[in-house]
Amino acid sequence: MLLTGKIALVTGAARGIGRVTALALAEAGADVAVADVLPDVEETAERIRNSGRRGAAAVFDVADADRVRDGVARLRAALGDFDVLVSGAAIVTNIAPLTKMSAQNWQRELAVNLTGAFNMIQSVIGPMIERGWGRIIVISSGAARGGLHHQAAYAASKAGLIGLVQTVTLEHARHGIACNAILPGLIETELVRMMPAEIRAASTASTPARRLGRMEEVASLIAFLASDNAGFINGAEIDIDGGMRLNTGSLGSRKEVRDRPEGS
Length: 264
Prior knowledge:
Layout: E1 7-11, H1 16-27, E2 31-36, H2 41-50, E3 55-59, H3 65-79, E4 84-87, H4 103-131, E5 134-139, H5 143-146, H6 152-172, E6 177-184, H7 190-193, H8 197-205, H9 215-225, E7 237-240
Parallel strand pairs: 1-2, 1-4, 2-3, 4-5, 5-6, 6-7
């Protein structure tokens, strides 16, 4: 299998893309640790163990460096040093015009979405450097390039992830570490399924593929990037959006889709 013998850590794995990704990595042969701020992440670990792979879970806030350090230490004690990190923990519910977005909400979203990824990378990269092998996949968003109406903090945090990924590559590609960002478009997660039907329809109409993305498609891309086969893909921004980025109209300026959350 693609990831036999590898140990992976996935954040944001209580639901959505994170959970599906964790299960896909286990199916590809990896032992998988999962983390989330939601206790439901324990269910993901149980499903991993039921699949025949080793699994462990920890509940912590990726924005808190001390809790990250303690949580990762517990997971490392359970499974061993991590070969693969998938940084997917994010919040998408801070929706307000720039003029009305509170400083507290702005800071919280950047703390989770951007600083959280920094905390996670810093917590696992040391052993990767020592072994001369590692894979880091960060879930950004199409909003990193085009912005998102009423979600300045989300778009800014996702754009910041690209700079983080590129810097990790510049500093650590020589150590056998491949670090890449994926940029999902609108993916059919639990949150997206709760959106009004007319907003989903407008987004689908703006996507050349004329459909929403599936979480399994994102997970399959991540599993490939986590493998030996992807070692020369480094510092990349990989779109998985059904061609939405090619649409010349700005989704961010359209009233009917202005409050849509991204898939990641």
